[in-house]
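retry 2 of 3: previous attempt timed out while embedding protoporphyrin IX containing FE. Reduced batch size to 1 and resubmitted. Inputs unchanged:
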Amino acid sequence: MAALPASQFALVATVGTSFRSILIYALSATVALIVVHWLARAAAPRAQRADRQPWTAWERLVYAGVLSAVGVLAASAFGAIGKGETMSGWPLMLHMVGAGVFTVALPALAVTWSAVHLRANRVANGARFSLLARAMFWALLLSGLAVMGTMLVSMLPWLGTHELEEMLDAHRFAGLAVVIVLLLHAYAVLTGRRR
Ligand code: HEM
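retry 2 succeeded.
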């Protein structure tokens, strides 16, 4: 591989370092937010919960597919970044397996749940998910499209080296957004209070 000019190498190194810090701060802040909210909720008097419509076996399967794919993708990519390395070897292989599952599971999630997240349907059937869960569902679809799109566009013979670096950087941030949004979504559906 041709060596990068000094200025470009400095740019790539700076982006990598700042992403690592952003990753640590953003994930810590999300987990802290969830814990604080959960503690505040546990201390507050219980609101009456409407009867929950149970998840079908298909809905469970699709959601488990998204959760496990994102878990593998995040562990393989963020693990390498945490160690200050770039992904290679087994982590890269795992990332590709996770990517395959994610590209099937996300459209399946969209087909399964988009209708119940639409306003008209919500009014007709009564809200099945909380406001946070509904907002995070759409954010998950958007950030999921971005994470896949950045890599799919990178495979086309349109971009030069600099544009490919920018796409990889966009992919990192889109991946971080997917992880945060899915953590919040999972928290919202697990605690399950509806408004
Ligand atoms: C939540 C989902 C995802 C997350 C968090 C994520 C995160 C990342 C991160 C942080 C990197 C850079 C690793 C490094 O700097 O060494 C990366 C690289 C990569 N990702 Fe993902 N990714 C996700 C989904 C996907 C998907 C769906 C695909 C394929 C469609 C994909 C394909 C790739 C490829 C090919 C690379 C290597 C790029 C290169 O080194 O040139 N990722 N991913």
